[in-house]
Amino acid sequence: xxxxxxKLRILFIxxxxxxxxxxxxxxxxxxxENVVYFLSPTxxxxxxxxxxxxxxxxxxxxxNSIIIDSENVNFIITxxxxxxxxxxxxxxxNLFEEGKGVVAEGFLKDQSxxxxxxxxxxxxxxxxxxxxxxxxxxx
Length: 139
Known about the structure:
Layout: H1 4-34, E1 38-39, H2 41-45, E2 55-61, E3 67-68, E4 73-78, E5 83-88, E6 101-110, E7 113-121, H3 130-138
Parallel strand pairs: 1-2, 5-7
Antiparallel strand pairs: 2-4, 2-6, 3-4, 4-5, 6-7
């Protein structure tokens, strides 16, 4: 029925589609293992089971909650409905302060306590590095 050329084209297109589908599957599977999900304190409170894997918690740093001692920084992340206590040891970002957005990455001890390995300070779309702001003032 079909000629040799048509059969080769069908085989080539079939192999191409299978290889593209397999590539996409492998890429998505590898990303799934490396993605760290972002949750709010309310979503963490609603978790049924605390898994022992890395998690990101985002929200606002509660006013008057930052306590800095010689080795650790303790603070509270809130989404204005629920709160989660965070313990972090290490340098904090320059934009980290009370009333500002923050994302803490680490491991949950329970639904109200996170031991953070990394803190990421969030800024709004109007943020400008201090050096750039000073250079614009001079002009």
